[in-house]
């Protein structure tokens, strides 16, 4: 018997990076996984294929989390395929590495809508559709505490996510649903490595107690713990997973 046998998880932004590892970690623990993606169907299908090859169950579902109707449809598809939803991981996110002065209206709107509105829409849907004893796990960022230049709008959205996490936890306790956030530090994802200069990457490594960036494999086990019965007495918390970076 695996920790998450018979459970169904939705992971937004599950096609790449941390999201993909979370999908595979949940599946390895026995969960049925709905791998959400916005545009990269090929990457999402690769995650599904990997899960299926390991004997798990998964489907890829397109959906833009910045649109409430598409978040609703994501839950509809999960319920249609697997019967109910037990776990929601709000992982989808975008970032523009620009100063506040350089950030356009359109860029700020996009970051807010995907990161903050997307998490809000997911939690609002989960409030009535998640099974009793379910789990909501929001993926925030240690950048919220690090006061880094060019992260302002991104940190604003993740700070909003963390406050929503705390309030939502109080609202969902009567249904035995826990609500927590995981806060990765700088992590060796394709997005991070492609959009940062080598000098900055080295500085980020040196901020860690271990002198390295996080790896996507560092995140999945923490999410699985929170999603399982083992994490049932933890709610309303923001858990740093950052190697001592912040």
TrEMBL record:
Keywords, ordered alphabetically: Oxidoreductase
PANTHER family reported for this sequence: NADPH-DEPENDENT ALDEHYDE REDUCTASE-LIKE PROTEIN, CHLOROPLASTIC-RELATED, RE15974P
Family statement drawn from the similarity comment of this UniProt entry: Belongs to the short-chain dehydrogenases/reductases (SDR) family.
Gene source species: Blastopirellula marina
SUPFAM superfamilies: NAD(P)-binding Rossmann-fold domains (SSF51735)
Protein's recorded name: 3-ketoacyl-ACP reductase
Pfam families for the chain: adh_short_C2
InterPro entries: KR_dom, NAD(P)-bd_dom_sf, Sc_DH/Rdtase_CS, SDR_fam
Residue ranges annotated for the Ketoreductase domain, each copy included: 7-185
SMART domains: PKS_KR
GO molecular function, one term: oxidoreductase activity, acting on CH-OH group of donors
Xref: NCBIfam families: PRK07231.1
PROSITE patterns according to UniProt: ADH_SHORT
């Amino acid at each position: 018997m695996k920790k998450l046998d018979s459970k169904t998880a939705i992971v937004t932004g599950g096609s790449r990076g941390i999201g993909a590892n979370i999908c595979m970690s949940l599946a390895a623990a026995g969960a049925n996984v709905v791998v959400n993606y916005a545009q990269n169907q090929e990457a999402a299908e690769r995650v599904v294929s990997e899960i299926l090859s390991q004997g798990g169950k998964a489907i890829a579902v397109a959906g833009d989390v910045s649109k409430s109707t598409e978040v609703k449809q994501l839950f509809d598809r999960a319920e249609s395929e697997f019967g109910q939803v037990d776990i929601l991981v709000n992982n989808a996110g975008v970032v523009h590495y620009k100063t506040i002065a350089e950030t356009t209206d359109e860029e700020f709107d996009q970051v807010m809508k995907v990161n903050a509105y997307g998490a809000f829409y997911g939690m609002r849907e989960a409030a009535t559709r998640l099974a009793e004893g379910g789990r909501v796990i929001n993926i925030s960022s240690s950048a919220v505490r690090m006061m880094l230049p060019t992260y302002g709008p991104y940190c604003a959205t993740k700070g909003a996510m963390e406050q929503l996490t705390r309030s939502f936890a109080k609202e969902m306790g009567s249904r035995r649903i826990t609500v927590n956030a995981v806060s990765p530090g700088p992590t060796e994802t394709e997005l991070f490595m492609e959009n940062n200069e080598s000098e900055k990457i080295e500085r980020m490594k040196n901020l860690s107690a271990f002198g390295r960036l996080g790896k996507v494999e560092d995140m999945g086990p923490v999410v699985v713990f929170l999603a399982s019965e083992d994490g049932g007495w933890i709610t309303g918390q923001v858990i740093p997973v950052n190697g001592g970076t912040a």
